[in-house]
Structure formats: C-alpha cells, structure tokens
C-alpha cells in the first residue's frame, strides 16, 4: 500500500489540476461584454441603452439631402429607436457594428446624419439610421447588429445584440439618411 499511495496521490493531483483548468474562465469571459440578446423590432434594454431595430434595407446608394453628400456601394441601412434607461450622462450609441460570420463592419462615419454619438434621453426615443458599407459579395446570410455606449469596445459592459437575416432585407436603389429625431416611445 505504501508504494501505491504516492501514485494515487499524484493521480488525484493531476485530476484536480485538470478540473481547476477546466473551470477557470478565459480572458474573454472575464473582461468580455455581457451580451443582451433581443429580436428585430422589439426593444432591448442594457445597462446604458434601450434600443430597437425597426427597419433594415439594402441600398445601392445612401444620400444625406441637407449635406449634399451621397455614396454608392453595397449598403445596409438600419433604423434604430434608442433611449437612455436611467440617466442621460454619456447616453449615446457610440459603437455600432454589424457582424456577419467572422467579419465585423462598423457603422460608417462618413454620413453626418447618423444615430452614432447622438445624445439619448430618458423616456424619449431618438430615431435614427446606421449605415454599414459592405463588400459587394456580402448580400445574404445571418448578421448581428451590436450596439454599445462604449467608444472602442464593449469590454466589461453590456452589448445589445439583434439578429438580422440579410436574405429577408429588401433592396432599394437609394436611401435618404435623415438626422436623428426625437419621438415618443
């Protein structure tokens, strides 16, 4: 029995080390965002945002009428109604991305009329658009709209995720992007 004790003790320590390794969270689990999932058309509430994607379309051109600006390309334009849940301090959609497979597209900053960085109010929706310029080959598949109030990344914060089925989106020749406006929720 004395000869087997060190071997049994060693095996138990190896099993315990494996169990500890298996339950130890990854860096992404520790500092990654807390995803709050919703569905298209329904409001989703996170710690700093309440948002609902209400419309989405493909467009061959986006136009900002008042700024005399336009751009052709393969655009996905999403209309979002957003508000602040508790406080108006730092309440804005500062980062909006569209994730398709393993590719991430950030909302374009080229048009002036965008919901990105627009101030949000408590109890009043701000309705605006987010325009994503996609490569010409991206015309179908599953996408995920991701919204957060963090500027560069949603680390250690909430991240609103709303699925979009690109196959169901209509295609229009041109979409006018209007400035964000306030509306009753």
Key traits:
Immunoglobulin-like; about 15% helix; 12 strands; about 180 residues; about 40% strand; elongated; five-stranded mixed β-sheet; mainly beta
Explain what this protein looks like in three dimensions.
It is elongated and about 85 Å long. The chain has helices at residues 4-23, 27-31, and strands at 34-37, 44-45, 50-64, 69-83, 95-100, 103-106, 125-134, 142-148, 158-165, 171-172, 175-176, 181-183. Strand 3 (50-64) and strand 4 (69-83) form a beta hairpin. The protein is built from 2 helices and 12 strands; from the N terminus they run H-H-E-E-E-E-E-E-E-E-E-E-E-E. The protein is 14% helix and 42% strand. Strands 2, 3, 4, 7, 10, 11 and 12 form a 7-stranded mixed beta sheet that branches. The protein has a single domain (27-183), classed as Immunoglobulin-like. The relative contact order is 0.23. The chain is mainly β. The mean pLDDT is 90.
Helical/strand content category: mainly beta
Question: Which range best describes the helical content: under 10%, 10-25%, 25-40%, 40-55%, 55-70% or over 70%?
Answer: 10-25%
- The number of helical elements comes to 2
Shape: elongated
CATH topology: Immunoglobulin-like
List the SSEs and their pairings.
Layout (H helix, E strand, L loop, with lengths): L3 H20 L3 H5 L2 E4 L6 E2 L4 E15 L4 E15 L11 E6 L2 E4 L18 E10 L7 E7 L9 E8 L5 E2 L2 E2 L4 E3 L2
Concise account of the structure shown:
The chain has helices at 4-23, 27-31; strands at 34-37, 44-45, 50-64, 69-83, 95-100, 103-106, 125-134, 142-148, 158-165, 171-172, 175-176, 181-183. It has 185 residues and is mainly beta.
């Amino acid at each position: 029995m004395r000869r087997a004790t060190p071997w049994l003790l060693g095996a138990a320590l190896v099993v315990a080390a494996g169990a500890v390794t298996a339950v130890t969270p990854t860096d992404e689990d520790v500092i990654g965002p807390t995803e709050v999932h919703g569905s298209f058309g329904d409001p989703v509430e996170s710690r700093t945002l309440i948002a609902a994607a209400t419309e989405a379309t493909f467009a061959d051109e986006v136009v900002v009428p008042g700024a005399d600006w336009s751009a052709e390309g393969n655009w996905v334009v999403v209309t979002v109604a957003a508000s602040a849940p508790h406080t108006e301090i730092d309440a804005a959609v500062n980062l909006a991305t569209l994730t398709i497979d393993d590719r991430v597209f950030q909302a374009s900053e080229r048009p002036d009329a965008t919901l990105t960085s627009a101030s949000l109010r408590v109890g009043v929706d701000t309705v605006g658009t987010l325009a994503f310029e996609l490569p010409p080959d991206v015309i179908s598949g599953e996408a995920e709209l991701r919204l957060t109030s963090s500027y560069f990344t949603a680390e250690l914060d909430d991240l609103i995720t709303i699925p979009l089925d690109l196959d169901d989106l209509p295609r229009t020749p041109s979409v006018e992007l209007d400035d964000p406006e306030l509306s009753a929720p």
